[in-house]
């Protein structure tokens, strides 16, 4: 009888030790890491763009200031110290923009209560997309005030910013919506103005990856 109790006690001790041994193994024999790249650390090498890139230096988003749907001035200054997701669109876009904006709603919802994350959707058709037009579009996509900013500004500055700041294609379509050219990419910018990732705004899996990497940046992991 006594031998059976000793055996039962030994088995119980082994069962209790298993989780401890697993934890010790994981801490000593494995590492948890997830690297998010930093783009253009030695400058941007793209001869197809007429931009004044600085050679051999980390590329950062240049200074800019636009107007949001609330007639507030927003730009690079408000990006400092925050994680910003940026895309280029226009409200009369007949193709990819509605899908992109619907996907961006997910980012807005996920980080609705996170003060250190914000969204800039920048119009490439500023002549049509006034703050009033952008307000209606923001309401359509249930944009959180103070979180998701729809921006409009000078056309030349906007296109230079897309090409030379965010390194994305952009082409003016004039009066024909189908002739506008812009990227479907969401761009992840860290609090230092560095580009950390590009994600297709028409691909839900890519947007899932974006949201995971935003969380990693928030927790200070690189």
UniProtKB/TrEMBL annotation:
<comment type="similarity">
    <text>Belongs to the SCO1/2 family.</text>
</comment>
<dbReference type="InterPro" id="IPR003782">
    <property type="entry name" value="SCO1/SenC"/>
</dbReference>
<keyword id="KW-0472">Membrane</keyword>
<keyword id="KW-0812">Transmembrane</keyword>
<dbReference type="InterPro" id="IPR036249">
    <property type="entry name" value="Thioredoxin-like_sf"/>
</dbReference>
<dbReference type="Pfam" id="PF02630">
    <property type="entry name" value="SCO1-SenC"/>
</dbReference>
<dbReference type="InterPro" id="IPR013766">
    <property type="entry name" value="Thioredoxin_domain"/>
</dbReference>
<feature type="transmembrane region" description="Helical">
    <location>
        <begin position="6"/>
        <end position="26"/>
    </location>
</feature>
<feature type="domain" description="Thioredoxin">
    <location>
        <begin position="55"/>
        <end position="219"/>
    </location>
</feature>
<keyword id="KW-0186">Copper</keyword>
<protein>
    <submittedName>
        <fullName>SCO family protein</fullName>
    </submittedName>
</protein>
<keyword id="KW-1133">Transmembrane helix</keyword>
């Amino acid at each position: 009888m006594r031998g059976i109790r000793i055996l039962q006690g030994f088995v119980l001790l082994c069962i209790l030790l298993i989780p401890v041994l697993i934890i010790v193994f994981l801490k000593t024999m494995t590492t948890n890491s997830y690297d998010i790249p930093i783009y253009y650390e030695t400058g941007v090498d793209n001869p197809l763009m007429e931009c004044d890139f600085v050679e051999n230096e980390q590329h950062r988003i240049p200074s800019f200031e636009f107007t949001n749907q609330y007639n507030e001035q927003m730009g690079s200054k408000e990006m400092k110290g925050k994680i910003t997701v940026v895309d280029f669109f226009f409200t009369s876009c007949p193709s990819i923009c509605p899908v992109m904006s619907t996907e961006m709603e997910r980012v807005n919802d996920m980080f609705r209560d996170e003060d250190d994350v914000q969204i800039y959707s920048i119009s490439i058709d500023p002549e049509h997309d006034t703050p009033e037009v952008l307000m209606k579009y923001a309401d359509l996509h249930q944009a959180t005030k103070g979180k998701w900013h729809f921006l409009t500004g000078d056309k030349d500055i906007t296109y230079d910013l897309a090409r030379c700041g965010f390194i994305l294609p952009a082409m003016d379509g004039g009066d024909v919506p189908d002739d506008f050219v812009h990227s479907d990419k969401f761009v992840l910018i860290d609090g230092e103005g560095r580009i950390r990732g590009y994600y297709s705004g028409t691909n839900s899996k890519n947007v899932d990856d974006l949201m995971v990497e935003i969380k990693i940046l928030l927790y200070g992991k690189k």
